[in-house]
Known about the structure:
Order of helices and strands: HHHEEEEEEHHEEEEHHEEHH
Strand order of the largest sheet: 10-1-2-11-12
Number of helices: 9
Structural class: alpha+beta
Largest sheet: 5 strands, antiparallel
Amino acid sequence: YQRRVRGSINSFTTMLANINLNFLDFDRPTEKVVEEENASEEQGFRLPPKYAPGKFLQAAFGQPDSPEAIKFAHGTTTLAFIFKGGVIVAVDSRSTMGPYIASQTVKKVIEINPYLLGTMAGGAADCSFWERELGRRCRLYELTNKERISVAGASKLLSNIVYAYKNYGLSMGTMIAGYDKTGAHLFYVDSDGTRLKGQKFCVGSGGTYAYGILDTGYRWGLEVNEAIELGRRSIYHATHRDAYSGGIINVYHVHEKGWTKISSDDCTKLHYERYSGQNRSLDKTI
């Protein structure tokens, strides 16, 4: 029996060795290839063992007879806005792959440090990995410079990181919210390296619905309780209308003493216990 198993393994190994993968090979670059021992010292994310990953992806998936490329079928709703009391961050918790609901308990707020929060929209692995890497770099900055990194600096770090991998297939639409010595700040950063500063953002498939409620009820002078309710209700309406958003609504408040998690509410319970059947104006409910 052991001889038969070994024989099968040897046959399978021989078959793999004879597979022709020449169609994926490319000409060597003209510049000098970095020696392996020196390459190991470079900072960066490990890439496939090809000289030109962009050309590799084009050859593998960009030809008429190529297999179907990976297509991200994602959906979510995240929002954040600045008001006089700091920043409110609200997210849902549903993870989807097209019409399939993969999870209802995804944590879409990444706690970068006690004064910085990041949100996830797009590919969960990409957002989670790079925002945690951002947290590591922010900590290194703090140890080196003996002060916390600014919100603008943290968002610029993330933007520079993902821009280096532009067109490599990342899928990210994140927000970086925080409080530093200059006050509360909010930035949007995506996988193309785009970095925008603003007062309010809604990101994800349900963002259009959330914007409708947020734009109606938003004003700079909101009290803390009013701002929390506005963020929660905006996400609720998005989960009610967008099939790709749902689960638990998590709300955070970022203020001068750091961030505080306010609540985690099931959107279904909110619908039946608080918001369903209310024929009141938004001014009275928010």
